[in-house]
UniProtKB/TrEMBL annotation:
Organism, scientific name: Olea europaea subsp. europaea
Protein name per its UniProtKB record: CASP-like protein
GO cellular component term of the entry, any: plasma membrane
Pfam families for this protein: CASP_dom (PF04535)
Source taxonomy: Eukaryota, Viridiplantae, Streptophyta, Embryophyta, Tracheophyta
Domain Casparian strip membrane protein: 22-137
Length: 166
């Protein structure tokens, strides 16, 4: 008959993740979130349209019609490509603890690429908000002018559709 022994105590050092592995996991999660948000943003920009039915013609507003929205699409695609290129390195760093490339050139690419992408995304947001506000203001002013001159009730329906677009 054997004497029961106490189960072995877990080694606390082996279970606690190190600071570098925790940072690698956070970096991977942030890259995945960035990639998903860029995909969603790209889909929204490409698929969103507004149709205005006027007295004489129907006008459809699409992202191609506004230069700032084209810039948003280009920056989104660049962000998707850059983030997709960074994902294998981040995954390997989380799994093995070693970076995919250890060269100083890759570290510089990683550092500067993140900063450039951040700057592009920030200017993209500013351009999109500015274009949206200007376009909405211009269309609201046009609506007011036409309402004063023609007393057209159909313009209020057009304005509701434009408000949904923006």
């Amino acid at each position: 008959m054997s004497i029961p022994t106490a189960p072995p105590q877990p080694n606390e050092e082996a279970q606690a993740p190190s600071a570098s592995s925790l940072m690698a996991i956070i970096a991977l999660i942030l890259r995945i979130i960035t990639w998903v948000c860029l995909i969603i943003s790209t889909i929204i920009i490409v698929t969103t349209t507004a149709t205005i039915i006027g007295t004489y013609q129907t006008v459809e507003i699409h992202f191609n019609d506004i230069i700032a929205y084209r810039y948003v699409l280009v920056v989104n695609v660049l962000g998707l490509v850059y983030t997709k290129l960074q994902l294998p390195s981040s995954i390997r760093l989380v799994i093995s603890g070693n970076p995919l490339w250890k060269s100083p050139g890759f570290l510089m690419y990683d550092f500067l690429g993140d900063k450039i992408l951040l700057s592009l995304l920030a200017t993209e947001v500013g351009a999109a908000f500015g274009a949206t506000l200007d376009l909405k203001k211009d269309l609201d002013d046009l609506n007011d002018i036409l309402r004063e001159n023609y007393k057209n009730t159909a313009l209020s329906q057009i304005r509701v559709k434009l408000d949904d677009f923006f």
